[in-house]
Amino acid sequence: MKNFDWIVIGAGLTGSALSYELAKQGLTVLLLEKDPNYENATHYSYGGISYWSGTDDFSIKLCQESREIHHNLSKELGDNTEFRELYLMLTVPVDKNPKIIAEDYQKFYIKPQLLTPKEAVKIEPLLNTDAISGCLQLPQGHINPRKTNAAYQQAFLRLGGTINYEEVTQLLFQNTTFTGIKTTQETYSSGNVVICAGGLSRLLLKNIGVTVNIYFTHSQLILTPKVDINLKNLVMPAILNRLDIEKQSGDSEIKSLWNNTSDEIISDVMEPGAIQFLDGSFCLGQISQIITNPQAKINSNLAETTIREGVGKILPELQNLPGKLHHCLVAFCPDSNFLVGKIDGFQGLHLFSGFTGTLMFAPPLAKRFASWVKEDYQKMPSLSS
Prior knowledge:
This protein is of the alpha/beta class. The protein has two domains: 2-62 and 145-213 and 336-383, FAD/NAD(P)-binding domain (3-Layer(bba) Sandwich), CATH 3.50.50.60; 84-142 and 215-332, D-Amino Acid Oxidase, Chain A, domain 2 (2-Layer Sandwich), CATH 3.30.9. The protein is 29% helix and 30% strand. A seven-stranded mixed beta sheet has the order 8-3-2-12-19-18-20, with helices on one face. Strands 4, 5, 6, 7 and 14 form a five-stranded mixed beta sheet that branches. A four-stranded mixed beta sheet has the order 1-11-10-9, with no helix packed on it. The longest helix has 21 residues, at 57-77. The radius of gyration is 21 Å and the shape is globular.
């Protein structure tokens, strides 16, 4: 039986960044992912880094740390993450008062600039001024999430880390002390495990009788090949209905629905956003559906039509771009930006998941997590089960 200091479950950006940071501390680390061709929230991310979004001393500090990390990450990892800074253009619907919407953003560390439709189209010429009453402009970091994830993994391997593509079938405990993991191929021994499995984190913990305040949406968006159209900025709606349905999942009535898996759509929203990567490809739109069954089938034709129509109203030239609909699970916590720390009642069981703003929060928190492990484990937060 192979032995490791730490086992990390999930090789998206959260698991890859955390594995790298733990290995930097001189620890032996096994990173497990069930599928080498995984299609997860990192793979289908817009790549935005909202370092303007801190609202208190701690989140503002994380925003500042994240910006510094991303500025230097390509050099540190030895591979290009395609980091750049651009504008985030938050569109206000034509039937909403942009001044009232702008008031909701005054709580953030960096305040937005309110633009008229004419001012906004000078910055982003693809915008349809007839569809918006205004726009909020904010500074935004941006990376290629797939290349960044791969860079973390390659740097992790150079530090002596191990990545195996095997599905976890069982977490092993002696009483309440973690002792290892059984997969479809092997059994591994360790005194510590951290779950970074995104939308599947809830299911993994449920299998050992642990319930935490983490859930998931079924996210759908369109990816395009390289096209000649040039979008200069990241465009998103100023009113993020996705955050509203995530918050509602914390209500007791909705929480009870998560006790059983179902294909029923509990909530369903579409956000007409777009980003163009440096290679000329696009991500278009995002549908977020709360469905308690992680294996639920979605209506791909309806989803694609809905996204194209929604994006087309704001950015008409993008509506009919060639592209394909993709689907993944996105983890979230209704009342916090993430769940990071030790799970109460168990020795050696940890969670690093549920991020709102993964690319912004995960890198600095991965550094902090690894520092807690190496320097002062008692400072690591505890999470109630």
